[in-house]
Each structure stands twice: as structure tokens, then as C-alpha cells.
Amino acid sequence: MWFSALLQLEVSVGGKPTSMSRTVVVFEAGEDWAEAEEKARTLGRSKEQSYANSDRETVRWSFRGLETLDMLGERIEDGREVYHEIVETSASTQFAAPGASAGQSGV
């Protein structure tokens, strides 16, 4: 069975919380819900990291939780929606042109 999991990570700099967080969607195979949930939490913890920034402050990404876990089924079909987000836009919001080449997300 295939599952998608939405993981939440937050960042601190120099031991102080920031207003930044990261949302990560991962796909995983599991026999059942319990196994998928445990694998998702393990994946979340594996994404924790610390490093020094250019000001020599410690930057730490910490796993803060599993926001969603969704069963996708035995197979993932072309075009299967696995994540969506509704966000507010303004008159100054710029969208990519319909025929423009897609960029990469950095994954």
C-alpha cells in the first residue's frame, strides 16, 4: 500500500525560534496504517539537521510532527493528486505563464 505523509519541520538560529518552517511531502510503502505512521515519523526525524550559517550561528531544523497521513492505494496513477494548498494572493502575485518551463523545487 502507498501512503503520503506531510511532515512539519521548524528552524531555529542561534537557539532562538524563527518564523520559518518547512513542509515536506513524502511517499512511502507500508503494509498497514501503523507501519506507515511509524515510517513517516522516522523519516521526519531523519530530516533533522544542524549546521553553522555564515555568521557562525547554529541553524537547526527540528521535526515537529506528522500533520497528515493519507492512504493512496495499491498503485499511484498518473495525475493522482497528493497535495494541494490554498493560499491568499494579492494583485501583485505573479504566476508562471501557462506555457513556461517548470522550475525545480530543490528536492
Task: Itemize the secondary structure elements and their pairings.
Layout: E1 2-13, E2 16-29, H1 33-46, E3 49-52, E4 58-73
Antiparallel strand pairs: 1-2, 1-4, 3-4
Describe this structure in words.
- The chain is mainly β and 107 residues long.
- The chain has a domain at 2-72.
- It is 13% helix and 43% strand.
- The longest helix has 14 residues, at 33-46.
- The protein starts with a strand and ends in a 34-residue tail after the last strand.
User: Got a strand count?
Assistant: 4
From the spread of the alpha carbons, the general shape counts as flat
- Order of strands, main sheet, comes to 2-1-4-3
Structural class: mainly beta
Low-confidence stretches: none
User: What percent of residues are in strands?
Assistant: 35-45%
String of helices and strands: EEHEE
Give the averaged pLDDT, no decimals.
87
Radius of gyration based on Cα positions: 17 Å
Main beta sheet strand tally, sense and closure: 4 strands, antiparallel
Q: Short summary of the structure?
A:
This protein has 107 residues and is mainly β. The protein has one helix and four strands; from the N terminus they run ββαββ.
Key attributes of the depicted protein:
single chain, 107 residues, mainly beta, 4 strands, flat
